[in-house]
Amino acid sequence: MRIAVILGSVLGLAAVQELATRGAVCSVAVPSTEHPEPDELAAQLLGAGWPVVRLGRPGLGNALLAWLDACQPDVVLVFTFPWRVPARLLVAGPRLGFLNFHFAALPGYRRPEPIFWQIRHGEAAGAVTVHRMEAAFDTGPVLLAQAVPIAAHDTHGLHRARLAVAAAGVARQLLAAWQGETAPLVEIPQNPALARYWPRAGLADVCLRWAEPAQALERLVRAANPWNRGAITTLRGQLLRVLGATALAQLPKPLQAPPGTVVLATGPEGLVVACGQNSGLRLDIVGLDEGYFTGGQLAALGLQAGEQLPEYLSAPIASAS
């Protein structure tokens, strides 16, 4: 079995290593983008003695064709590749085609950054889904799907790490099926009626909106940690990042206040902000230009109950000049 791999992030590294230990990887290609992760990944692979082919967006079709001619794989496994593979190669490529590892359930979470949205929505599980690649993104029939639980305190980074580990197991299952050790894979078409496309999270998506219930805001904080360094709000005209928080389902009546109001600020008890539905969000870890602090430390520095944390998009931010 000869497997070629297009590896765009560390999400697929454990899977590639798993296949390589079984002698199945014939070549690895890494895209050249403006982001540092592929370059770091290529350097890591080269340092481990793996030859790496770099792929750029200009001339991608010809570069892929030359690569396939050189390594003659049975299948190409694709992990977080940022560009479309030309349709002619999807049709006339290796005998088992191009298979994409999508790090979410399909068809409900299509597009490149589903992890944020799954945590934001409170899904109980994400998934590693292997599907046949088609001209459109994330639409092909599914060969394998493995659910990956999203624990109550999982951040984006923690769930991402769990997905990477799960992908190695999925790759092992693929290889076992291809080698006749398990039942043949059955391709299951996706139901287009259930398809949802989710964009990359933008600025508005990572802002704390205090009218929401605290439980929803706690999920947002986890969904934005670490890639955005947390969810954002403001404090005294300065950007405040919230990297860790705990939802309090119901504030006692003496602490109930308009959303965005600091209702508790003490060293021992921490920092609690009023949210929608009379709930509260305890800010456990926060970030300012001066550093990272616990909520209790921020209270000890002078933040007081009764102060407001204006939402970022509606508040003027102090200039550094």
TrEMBL record:
One of its GO terms (cellular component) is cytosol. It comes from the Bacteria. The keyword Translocase does not apply. Residues 205-284 form the Formyl transferase C-terminal domain. GO terms for molecular function: methionyl-tRNA formyltransferase activity. Residues 63-164 form the Formyl transferase N-terminal domain. Keywords: Protein biosynthesis, Transferase. It holds the Pfam family Formyl_trans_N. The keyword Thylakoid does not apply. PANTHER family: METHIONYL-TRNA FORMYLTRANSFERASE, METHIONYL-TRNA FORMYLTRANSFERASE, MITOCHONDRIAL. Belongs to the Fmt family. This is Uncharacterized protein.
